[in-house]
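Hi R.,

Here's the chain you asked about this morning:
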Amino acid sequence: MARGEDVEARAAPAADLRFVAQLNMLHSMATALASLDDVSEIGAAITEELRTILDYHNCRVYVMQDDGWTLLPIAFRGEIFYEYEHETLEELITHVGEGITGWVAEHRTSVLAADARLIPFAVQIPDTEDILESMLAVPMTVGEAVQGVIVLSSLGYGAFDEEDQRLLEVLASHAAIAISNAKLLQAEREAAETSSALLGLSKRLTQLRSVGDILQGAIETVSSLIDAAAVAFHVRDEHTGDFRLARLLTLDPDAIRPWQEIGDVPESIAASVVFDNDEPLVFPREAALSNDQDYLVSKEPREVLIAPVTWEPDGAGTIAVIGHEGEGIFAERELRLIRGVADLTSLALGNARRMSELERFHELVAGLDAAFWEASLPGMVFTFVAGAVRDLLGGDTESWPDDARAWGSHIDERDREEAMAGLQRAIESGVGEALEYRVPSDDESPRWIRDLIHVIRGRGGAPMILRGLMVDITERKAAERALRASERKYSDAFKREREAAQRLRMLDEMKNTFLEAVSHDLRTPLTSILGSALTLERSKLDLPEGEALDMVGRIAANAKKLERLLSDLLDLDRLQRGIVSPKRRATDLEDFVLRAVAEMDTQGRKIELDIQPGSVQIDQAKTERILENLLSNSLRHTPADAKIWVRARPQNDGVLFIVEDDGPGVPAELHEAIFEPFRQAPGSSSVHAPGVGIGLSLVRRFAELHGGNAWAEEREGGGASFHVFLPGS
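And here is the predicted structure, written out as C-alpha cells:
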C-alpha cells in the first residue's frame, strides 16, 4: 500500500470515531435538554456539551424575547477572554436583522463563515480588536417560529466545516423544542405566581378600610412582582385637579429623588394618561414628559410604567413603576401584572369609599331625630332599621328585619295606596322620591312622616336595594293646616288689597307719564307763541311785512297744536267715560279719503294713495281723526325720505283702512303697548310733534266706538303697517 493510501486508511477510522461521538452526544444532548425546564439551564447545557465535540473559543446562545425583535444572550462559554473582556450584557444584546446573529434570526438560515470579517452584514462589537476568526451561526426554530440563535466562533481561518454545521443544526432543532417548552412552562409558572400574588393582594385589600393602607398594599405588591427602582402612587387633588404623590416605595435610593423635592403632576398631563387610556402605558426615558420636570420621581430620566386607577364616585390616581437604568425594562408580563394590580386597587378603593360614606351616614343618622332603613327588592322587605325608629313609629321596630316585615305595612291605611304608588314610581324611574304619609301612633292623632327614598341599582342597572330616611313632620303639617285656614280667611281681603294697590300704581304711573308729556307738549307751543308775541309787541309792529307775517303764522300754527292737544285729551276723557256715540252716515270712500288727506299737514311729504271705490257707513268726523292720527304717527316716526301709503278697502261687513311706511317699524313686543295712553314708540326720527302719546290710543278707541278694532303689523319688506277695521253697522 502506498504511503498516501496508508494515511487515508488511518484518517477514515478517525472520521468514523468523530461521527460516532457526535451521534452519541446528540442522543445524550436531546435527552438532557428534554429534561430541563429553564431557558438559562438549557443555554448552559448547550455550551457545555458542545465543548466536548467541537473546538471553539467562544459560544453564545441567544433567545428570542416576547417582543419578537430582541435577541438576549442567555449563555456564554469561551477559552480566550481577553478579546471580549470589555463586553457588557447591553452590548451583547442584539435584534433581528442586526449583524450575523440578527441576520440568521431574520432569514432562519445558517451562516458558515471561514472569515467573519468578510461577511457584509457582520457587526464588530465596539472597543474590540478586528481579529481573524471563523464563525458558525445556526437558528433554533420550531415550525416558522424562531426561538433563538446558537453562535460559535474560533480563532483562525476555516475552523468549522459543513459537517459541524449539520451537527449544530440538528442540535439547534432539539434546543428549539426544549426552549419552546421551557418558555411555556415559565409562562405557566409566571401566570400561577401572578395569580397567587393578585389573589393575595385581593384578600389583603378586602380587609383594609383606610385609603392609605390600600395604596401602601398596592405599591408593595407591585414591588414584589416587578423589579423596579421605585413604585409611586399619585392621587388627584379634588380642588386643583393635579395629581399629588401619596405613596412612594424606594428600592434604589441612589436613583430616586427625596419625597419633598417631587412636585405635583399637572392635571393637563395626568388626566390625559388616566382618562384617555384604560390600559397601562410605558413611557421611554426620552419621552417629552420625562425630562426636566419637577414631578419626576427619579433623579435622571428612566423608563416608567404607568397604570391608571379610578374608583367611584370620582376618585382617580396612577401607579407609577420607575425602571432601572436601560431600555426595554417593561414588557408584556409587567403590563399584565400592573393591570391586575390597578383593577384590584380600583375595586378596593371604591369599596373603602362606599364603606366610609356609609359609616359616616350611619353616624349622622344616629345623631339625628330620624330613622334610617334599607329594604331588599323585589319583596321590599326591611333588612336594616336604625336611628329614632321607635320614637317615630313606635312598637317593636328593631325586629322588623328578623320578622321579614315589608315596607308599607307601617303606613296608615288612608295613605298606604298613594305611598305604594309613589314608591313604585321611584323604583321604575330610578330617581329619588320624597313621600309624605301618616303612621298610627299610641295616641288618637296620627303622626306624619316624610320618607326620603333612594334606589340603589346593581351593575346591570336593575334596582337592588331601597334606602330611606324618615323624619317627623307632624308639627310642620299642623302649621301648614293653620296657614291654609288663615289664607282662606283672609284671601279675599288680601286679593282686594293687591288689586287696589295695583290700580294705584297704574294711576300713579299714568299720572307721572301724563304730566311729563303734557308739560313738554304744552310748554313747546306756548314758548313759541309767547316768543313771537313779545317780538311783535316790542317792535310795535314796526317790522318788515314778511317777518311780521312769519311770526303771526307761527303763533297760529302753535295755537292749532295746543287746540289739537286739548281736543285729544278731551276726546280721550269722553271716550273713557262712554259719553260719545258714533253718528254713521253713507259716505263715498274715495272722496272721503282724498279730502281727509288733502286737509292734513303732510309736512310737504308725498303720500301715496290706494283707494278702492265704494260706499260705507261711518262717522266721518271720527274716522277722519283716525286717518289723521295714523298719518301723523307715520310722519313723526319715519325719516324724510321714507314712503307712506294710505289704503282703503270696502268690505262686505265694513271698511278696512291701512296706513303703511317703510321706516324703522315697530318692535313686535310693542305692537299692543303703543295703543295704550301716553305710550310712544321709541326712536322718533323727526322733531317732536303735537300729542302726548295718545294718538294711537284714540285710533283704537274710535275704532272700538264703531264696533271695530285697530292693530299693528310688520310690513312685508320692512316698516310699520297699521290696520283699522270699522264694521258697516
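One quick note: The first helix runs from residue 3 to 35.

Cheers,
M.
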